[in-house]
């Protein structure tokens, strides 16, 4: 599944910014939070403007590389500059058009879950592992890695432990819904009069992810611990002892 142009608020914002050098407000709604905004210029950040964590992710890319949910293509363009063979994919048709116009050589309108070719490095940045959606989605995710991660390959991603959001002033934690994992959110975006469909988005703490990964024969290694409960990590196939 990919998005239609009529239901692609982020793609429209990216396209407006590309055409006019500015864009309106890209609004983000989630039932549990106050309305938020993604500054559209942030999606066009240069390598110098990226966080040390993202810069480290770019340094770690090697071999045939996939940028998942590449957006305006900031990481794909940087990798291309480094001489890395990179393929950028996104479900947003408008974003893919912008990436092509910006010079991303392999920018494809493809859903991650319909891929069937192998990569040595799979990058999922800006909390890119969020597209797993829910903890239940982990099984589909790791099964896909079994087929698209080349032998010795790696997934480099960032996420956050959003537990702090539920912390009271006295340090106790109160989760809104004990039925589901606290990092399972639903988002909806709006740009001008374009309202996208709601979609599930997962924030996952490193320990929970490591436990999930283990079940499917993968390991998680923390590469950088960020300033604000965020982290950069690498997923790889567990070594099988002879
Ligand atoms: N990585 C970019 C953009 C992040 S926004 C950056 O760091 O600036 C997340 C992007 O993921 C959006 O462009 C969205 O369209 C895309 N996306 C969401 N689900 C996807 C899927 N299943 N397959 C491919 N791309 C997806």
Short description:
The protein is α/β, with parallel strands linked by helices.
Question: Keywords, please?
Answer:
242 residues, alpha/beta, 7-stranded mixed beta sheet, 6 helices, globular
Describe the structure.
By secondary structure, the chain is of the alpha/beta class. Helix content is 25%, strand content 28%. The chain contains 6 helices and 12 strands. Bound molecules: S-adenosyl-L-homocysteine. The site of S-adenosyl-L-homocysteine (SAH) has 19 residues, from strand 4.
Helices and strands in order, then pairings?
Blueprint: H1 9-20, E1 26-29, E2 36-38, H2 52-60, E3 65-68, H3 74-81, E4 86-90, H4 93-102, E5 107-109, E6 119-124, H5 138-148, E7 149-160, E8 184-191, E9 194-195, E10 199-202, H6 206-215, E11 218-225, E12 230-237
Helix pairs in contact: 1-4
The chain binds S-adenosyl-L-homocysteine.
Number of strands: 12
* Uncertain regions spanning at least 5 consecutive residues: none
C-alpha-based Rg, rounded: 18 Å
Percent in helix:
10-25%
Bound molecules: S-adenosyl-L-homocysteine
| SSE pattern | HEEHEHEHEEHEEEEHEE
Largest sheet: 7 strands, mixed
Beta percentage is 25-35%
For the terminal residues, how far apart are their CA atoms? Answer: 41 Å
Rough outline: globular
Task: Please work out how many helical segments DSSP would assign.
Answer: 6
Average residue-wise pLDDT: 95
| Spatial sequence of strands, sheet with the most strands | 5-4-3-6-7-12-11
């Amino acid at each position: 599944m990919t998005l239609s142009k009529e239901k692609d608020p982020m793609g429209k914002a990216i396209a407006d910014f590309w055409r006019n050098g500015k864009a309106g407000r890209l609004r983000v709604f989630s039932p549990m939070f106050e309305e938020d905004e993604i500054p559209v210029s942030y999606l066009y950040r240069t390598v110098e403007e990226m966080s040390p964590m993202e810069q480290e992710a770019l340094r770690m890319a090697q071999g045939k590389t996939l940028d998942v949910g590449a957006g305006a293509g900031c990481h794909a363009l940087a990798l291309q500059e480094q001489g890395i063979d990179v393929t950028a994919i996104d479900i947003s048709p408008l974003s893919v058009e912008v990436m092509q116009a910006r010079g991303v050589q392999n920018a494809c309108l493809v859903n991650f879950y319909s891929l069937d070719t192998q990569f040595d490095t799979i990058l999922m940045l800006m909390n890119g592992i969020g597209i797993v959606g829910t903890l239940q989605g982990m099984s589909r995710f790791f099964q896909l890695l079994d087929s698209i991660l080349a032998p010795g390959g790696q997934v480099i991603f960032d996420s956050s432990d959003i537990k702090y959001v539920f912390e009271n002033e006295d340090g106790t934690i109160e989760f809104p819904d004990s039925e589901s994992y606290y990092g399972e959110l639903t988002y909806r975006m709006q740009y001008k009069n374009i309202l996208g469909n709601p979609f599930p988005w997962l924030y996952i703490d490193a320990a929970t992810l490591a436990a999930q990964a283990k079940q499917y024969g993968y390991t998680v290694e923390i590469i950088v611990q960020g300033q604000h409960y965020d982290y950069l990590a690498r997923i790889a196939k567990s070594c099988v002892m002879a």
